[in-house]
Every structure is written in C-alpha cells, then in structure tokens.
Amino acid sequence: MKKNWIKIFIALILFIPVGFLQVSIDYTKKVENLESNLLLLPGQIAGSLVLSGFKGLAADLLWLNIENYWHSGQHYKMLPLFEAIAWLQPTYIVVWAVGGWHMSYNIFSNVRSRKEQLLPKIEKMMENIQDPFKKNIASDIKKKIEELIEGLSKNYEKSERKKAEYNILINDCLMKLEKLKEEKDLFQLLYDFINIPAEMLFWYNNGVSFLKKGITYNRERYDLYFELGWTYYHKGRDYSNAVRYLEKAVKFPHPDYVDDVLAHAYEKNGQIDLAIKQWEKLIGTSFENIARRAIETLKKGEKFTP
Predict the structure, then answer these.
(1) What is the pLDDT of residues 262-277, one digit of tens each?
(2) CATH no., domain 219-306
(3) What's the pTM value of the predicted model, to 2 decimals?
(4) Each residue of 22-69: pLDDT tens digit?
(5) Alpha helices of the chain — where are they, by DSSP H?
(6) What residues contact residue 246 under an 8 Å CB cut-off, 6+ apart?
(7) All structural domains of the chain with their residue ranges
(8) Rg (CA), the chain
C-alpha cells in the first residue's frame, strides 16, 4: 500500500511540468491558429496521457516542430512530421488539409523561387563560354527549363499524361547536360536548375498523395474530398480529377462553395450541361446572383469561368 502511494506521489510530481508545458502549447496553437478539439484540452490532460499513451502531447509537440521548420525555411523536414501527426490522429482533418496545402502550394512555391537565385549565375557563366556548340546546349537547356518552371508555376496542366511529358523533357535536358561535364561550375548550376521543376512536381504529387491518404481515414466527410478536388482544380489544372473528387464531396453535408467550385470544374472539363445543372442547384443560396449569370452565359455558348 505504501509503495502505491509513493508511485502516485511521483506521478503527480511528474504531471506538474506537463501541465505547464500544455499551457505553453495551447497558447502557441492560439497564436498560430492551430487549435483542434482532438488535441489536449484543459481538464483532459491526465486522462489523455493515461488513455492514449501521450498521443495528444506528442501531436502537440510535433505541431510546434512543424511551425519551427516552416518559419526557419526547413520545409523538407515537415513531411515526416505531418505523417507522424496523421498517424497519431488520423481523423484530425486539419493535419491532412494543412499538410497537403503546404506541400502542393507552399513548398512547391519555395522550390520554384530558387530560379531567381540560379538564373543570374547561369547567364553570367554562359557569357564566358567560347565554344558555340556548348553555348547552344546550355542556352537550350536554360530556355526549356525556365519555360517549364514558369509554366508549372502558372497554368500548366498537371495531369498524369502531362507530368509524364514534363519528365521526358527533364530527362532530355539531363542527357544534353552530359555534354557540358568539362564545364564543371556551369554543369552543377544547370543540374541544380533542371532539378527545380522535378522537385516542384515531387511536392505537388506528395501533397495530392497526402490528401488521398487522409481520405481513407475520413471517407464520410466532405472536407478532404474538397481539398483534393480544389488542389486538382486550382493548382493542377487537372479538371477531370477535380470533378471526380468534388462530386464525392457534394455527397456529404457541405457548404455552398463546394457546389460553386464543382460547377466551375464541370465547365473547365467541358461538361457544360452538368455545369448548368450544378449552377441551378445554387439558386436560392448566397451564390444565386453568380449562378444566374453563369447559367445565362453558358446557355449562350459563351465561357463563364476565366
């Protein structure tokens, strides 16, 4: 009996610093807008620690690490942490949505920004090449990769078929680069330059895959179907897949903007009749004015979605 009391006393002593740590974590989550009902809440700390084996506390600490990595620019370290939180709390929608967004948007954009750092160095070094054959190869690689980076950043479609075409172009540039091996510094700069669109596609794909994985744990909610549909629609310009997942989203209780995006996706995918029917569903909602204009425009055979 005496040993049990000693164990309880030790547990209470250990629990006090955990309580202070949780207060700090709760404050940080408020500041960073990362609150979740599924993470530890005041009054639930002891029960959660006992019943979930520290899962809530572990998830909170991982969130703090993600924020530190994001603000310090160490984005490549974030993916395993998102995976870890998702494993701890697979029904926590926010981790899947934010993780997919960070990968397909933020890290994608951050990788793209390396173009501004490398391009001036490449152009300066190309000025010193005397061999016109090598200069033409370097110029061709620079032009093709620069166009690919800008296209992926703006309006290039990222369907599987198109991504295969981009990879062929990247591999073609890598093969041409072999002819510049003697120009070691330029070779390395162009190699890094060619790697930019490859990394952009890598992070876009990872964001999409992460959202798909989240859907497997949250099949009966609209949220992640919409997040994935929006990523395909807005970032990927992949309208057939956008329609596919947005159609799944509207099968569950959802806000009106989901129907709005689906209507746009139908039009961009060439399904005009379905777009009109989808807009008609928004009559009587906050989107009614937009819906009426869209219906009128589409029935005239004109484009409504830019």
Answers:
(1) 999 999 999 999 999 9
(2) 1.25.40.10
(3) 0.79
(4) 444 443 444 334 333 333 333 333 334 333 455 666 666 777 777 788
(5) 2-32, 45-51, 55-71, 78-88, 93-101, 108-112, 114-126, 132-153, 160-177, 184-217, 223-230, 239-249, 256-268, 272-280, 288-299
(6) 225, 226, 229, 230, 233, 258, 261, 262, 265
(7) 1-75, 112-203, 219-306
(8) 25
